[in-house]
Amino acid sequence: MIKFACLLAFCLFMMGPAFSADKKLVLIAGKPSHGPGDHEFRAGMLLLQKCLGQFPGLKVVVECNGWVSDPKILDDADAVALYADGGGGNPFIQADRLELLDKLARKGVGIGCMHYAVEVPKEKGGVQFLDWIGGYYETNWSCNPFWSPDYQTFPKHPIANGVKPFSCKDEWYMHMRFRPEMKGVTPILVAKPSDEVRKGPYVHPRGPYQHIIDDSGKDEVMMWCVERPDGGRGFGWTGGHFHKNWGNENYRKVVLNALVWLCKLDVPPEGVASTVTDEDLQQNLDPKGGPKKK
């Protein structure tokens, strides 16, 4: 009997990955924000969870209202992604969370930030975001116009697997504060804004900023990723204002790919496949009344 048990243990060890535990991805959705159809953080994260529901080797947990219901949920996380309001109210910089997340990053946990969540004050969170995800939105340096970038080419990177050229009108932030000389940063979504876009208006402050105008003709990066020396990965994605855009296959695919990659799982050659219906887009929306705020 003992010999049989030892043989079984040896066989399981040799088979390796087939018996390895699932990777755990924690998706954190921010509190309700803006008007109907905008900043639908909870609905967006639940939709992404549904799209990843059958992905092999991945367990996806969604936490709402800007943080986890129990910090222990993060103890065994392989990656954490935040889709929430940012700036001074960014959930990642409240209380002692910068320290907590930094400890996770040092263990190789992946960190992703989506839309407004890429923004933190330079003096509180800026250094950590440069380290964790390679860049961030800096007030009065970056800007946030509504526009329709034309994404035509993509790097040879797993996050871009299967992504076809696309364009979506959204509040695509641009002119991020990146690491010096873009060290270790891989641009994923890149497009060239027109001079009209550069001249504003931006959402807030309205702008324009002369340094944005002076960059006429230059490309801007709206999604990027890094692989950190601690073994962890990070990404920033600046789209995500309009919930309806999740209905665009390529818009959705590049984010699903990024979440899988963040967990150190292999992204399929054609990217993460998913189907989203109009009915799906109406699920889990926050109860909101009144006009849109922007």
Structural summary, described in words:
Helix content is 23%, strand content 19%. It is an alpha/beta fold and 294 residues long. The chain has one domain (22-281): Class I glutamine amidotransferase (GATase) domain (Rossmann fold), CATH 3.40.50.880. It has a 7-stranded mixed beta sheet with strand order 2-1-3-4-13-12-11, covered by helices on one side.
What is the structure about, briefly put?
The chain is an alpha/beta fold and 294 residues long.
Feature tags:
two-stranded antiparallel sheet; globular; 7-stranded mixed β-sheet; 294 residues; alpha/beta; Rossmann fold
How is the CATH topology named?
A: Rossmann fold
Q: In total, how many beta strands?
A: 13
Strand content: 15-25%
Query: What's the N-to-C terminus distance?
Result: 70 Å
Largest sheet: 7 strands, mixed
Any idea what the CATH superfamily is called?
Class I glutamine amidotransferase (GATase) domain
- CATH architecture, please? 3-Layer(aba) Sandwich
Give the overall average pLDDT.
Answer: 93
Layout of helices and strands, plus pairs?
Layout: H1 2-15, E1 23-29, H2 41-51, E2 58-63, E3 79-83, H3 97-106, E4 110-114, H4 126-132, E5 135-136, E6 146-147, E7 150-151, E8 166-167, E9 170-171, E10 177-178, E11 185-191, H5 195-198, H6 210-213, E12 220-227, E13 233-237, H7 249-262, H8 278-281
Parallel strand pairs: 1-2, 1-3, 3-4, 4-13
Antiparallel strand pairs: 5-10, 6-9, 7-8, 11-12, 12-13
